[in-house]
Write a structure and sequence with these properties.
The longest helix is centred in the middle third of the chain and has 35 residues. The protein contains eleven helices and ten strands. The strands form three sheets. A four-stranded mixed beta sheet has the order 1-4-5-8, with helices on one face. It folds into three domains: about 90 residues, Butyryl-Coa Dehydrogenase, subunit A, domain 1, CATH 1.10.540; about 110 residues, Butyryl-CoA Dehydrogenase, subunit A, domain 2, CATH 2.40.110; about 150 residues, Butyryl-CoA Dehydrogenase, subunit A, domain 3, CATH 1.20.140.10. Strand 2 and strand 3 form a beta hairpin. The mean pLDDT is about 95. The radius of gyration is 22 Å and the shape is globular. By secondary structure, it is an alpha+beta fold. Helix content is about 45%, strand content about 15%.
Length: about 400
């Protein structure tokens, strides 16, 4: 590892880039990418060196995730979900909360953590659940319901998830716990057949009484928004690292637009390169202008997490706003790049075509535009008051 936190060599990234088209074509998981990333220490990047990891900061990891996403977006997005859990565990650890230290220890030992949060039809996201959590006499919790999508489906070994325990209707609780892949009652349904980000293998996970032992039950929280550090960590780490992936896609789109402008020629310009065409120059410049602001936004918020900045109640607005700005900007950049690339970019084999499909997924990752606006409105205007 270099002094600036670089773990991913140019050679590793180029090999991931070379494999990405085939994984996109057949929807296969990039096992070779994962093996190289693990060998480089990437899955333990956020684990403190004292616990066997690489000790990188969230800011350093976000910067590297941009580079990985520019090479292989689906690989970056898939490994992001493991990195989110290690980021949450590191955030808690750095603030004196050892609840998730086992995540750091096991990540250093090679375990892979999946992010079992999303549920179809659950627009409350972290603050409600369609999955039932049944607390057992021994303190363990059995989960029954469906989580989808869940990335890393062929390889994850641990599933961090939650469900609703409403055995006491007067005191319902959202219960967070971690399941081992081998626990009875876990079924992975191989149904990930989508437009873009295909190699993430974000298959459905069905839970039928799958139990987390008592020592892996980490929170029992009331439904609805709350300031628990775990919720803060999950929300902010997810949005920062997700934004890093889409920023990386944007960076690569600018590179491809420049290459296309220089490669393509124009009879109207006497056979000269289209990079001399004022309109092409304008499109490339517009893409670069938009793209140029992404790194500062992502890395600044990641640094604030690392340095434990006090944004008070504005943290959720800042994180959701970052995600929406970055994903929507990345889409606009890719749109410009596709125009510069011309008709060849419409071919299924084109990298720009793949980036175009991959960047669309950003709109479906939380927070949505509408959700972010609601969060930001509450932060700047306050909660909605009683009806007049």
């Amino acid at each position: 590892m270099t002094a600036d936190g670089v773990l991913l060599t140019d050679g590793l990234l180029e090999r991931c880039r070379a494999r990405a088209p085939q994984h996109d074509l057949d929807g296969s998981f990039p096992l070779e990418d994962l093996a190289e990333l693990q060998a480089a220490g990437w899955t333990a990047a956020l684990v403190p060196s004292s616990m066997g990891g690489r000790g990188l900061t969230l800011q350093q990891v976000a910067a590297e995730q941009m580079r990985l996403a520019a090479a292989a977006p689906a690989t970056a997005l898939a490994i992001n979900m493991h990195l989110v859990w290690t980021a949450v565990a590191r955030l808690l650890h750095d603030r004196g909360d050892r609840t998730l230290d086992f995540v750091l220890e096991e990540a250093a030992a090679g375990e892979l953590f999946a992010f079992g949060v999303s549920e179809a039809g659950n627009d409350l996201v972290l603050f409600g659940s369609t999955v039932r959590a049944e607390t057992r006499a021994d303190g363990g919790v059995a989960y029954t319901g469906v989580k989808t999508p869940v990335s890393l489906s062929p390889v994850w070994t641990r599933l961090g998830t939650f469900g609703l325990d409403d055995a006491d209707p007067a005191d319902p609780r959202i219960v967070w716990g971690f399941l081992d892949r081998g626990a009875p009652g876990i079924e992975i349904v191989e149904d990930w057949d989508v437009l873009g980000q295909r190699a993430t293998r974000s298959d459905t996970v069905r839970l039928d009484g799958a139990a987390a032992p008592a020592h892996r039950v980490v929170r029992r929280l009331p439904p609805g928004p709350n300031a628990d550090p775990l919720i803060f960590g999950v929300f902010v780490a997810f949005e920062v690292l997700l934004s890093a992936v889409y920023a990386g896609i944007s960076h690569r789109a600018v590179e491809l637009a420049v290459q296309a402008a220089r490669r393509r020629t124009s009879l109207r310009l006497g056979g000269g390169p289209r990079s001399d065409d004022p309109m092409v120059r304008r499109r490339v410049a517009s893409a670069a202008l938009l793209d140029g602001g992404l790194d500062a936004q992502v890395l600044a918020l990641a640094r604030d997490v690392d340095e434990q900045a006090d944004h008070g109640g504005a943290w959720f607005a800042r994180a959701s706003g970052l995600k929406v700005r970055v994903t929507e900007t990345a889409k606009a950049v890719v749109d410009e790049a596709v125009q510069v690339g011309g008709g060849s970019g419409y071919a299924a084999s084109s990298e720009l075509s793949r980036l175009y499909r991959d960047v669309l997924a950003g709109a479906f990752n939380p927070s949505s535009h509408d959700s972010a606006l609601s969060t930001i409105a509450s932060a700047v205007l306050g909660p909605v008051g009683p009806a007049a």
